[in-house]
Design brief:
153 residues, alpha/beta, five-stranded mixed sheet, 5 strands, 44% helix
Length: 153
């Protein structure tokens, strides 16, 4: 189990306000910073945008996994966000994004970063899992689904 250590219940947003990618990064970084105030917000947003400029992290229908390495982050910090209106994300399939898993990893966290991405990929391959996340109405529901999904892979 690794995802429950990165994506805390306190850093889950069940109704994202953002409608565009730039706003989304600000909103999610703010959620992470409210729980982990030791990192630099501007540095994190810059790193996410820099990573995104290389290739979109809107990798599958309805889902994005923005991630970046940020020097001021200690360990790895994650935020899960759900949008019921959709976010214009410039995804590979050009469709809006509704489910977002954002990760900020500190220096020397490459191995853990890859492990987290692998765990997320395995979970997201399950039939109906995206709809299951989108039907969650509380932070606790999202967190429990994440934990139980990781146990099942």
């Amino acid at each position: 189990m690794v995802l429950d250590q990165v994506f805390l219940e306190e850093t889950i947003i069940v109704e994202l306000e953002s409608s565009e990618k730039d706003e989304l990064f600000e909103e999610m970084v703010e959620a992470a910073h409210s729980v982990h105030p030791e990192f630099d917000r501007a540095e994190a947003v810059f790193a996410l945008n820099e990573r995104e400029s290389k290739m979109t992290t809107g990798i599958m229908h309805s889902v994005a996994i923005p991630h970046a390495q940020v020097k001021s982050v200690k360990g790895t910090v994650g935020v899960i966000g759900i949008s019921h209106r959709g976010i214009d994300y410039d995804s590979l399939d050009k469709a809006p994004v509704y489910l977002v898993f954002m990760m900020l990893a500190g220096e020397n966290q490459t191995e853990k970063h890859v492990q987290i991405l692998k765990s997320l990929a395995l979970i997201l391959q399950k039939d109906g899992i995206v709809d299951d996340f989108l039907s969650c109405r509380t932070k606790r529901d999202v967190y429990n689904l994440l934990v139980h999904s990781e146990e099942d892979v």
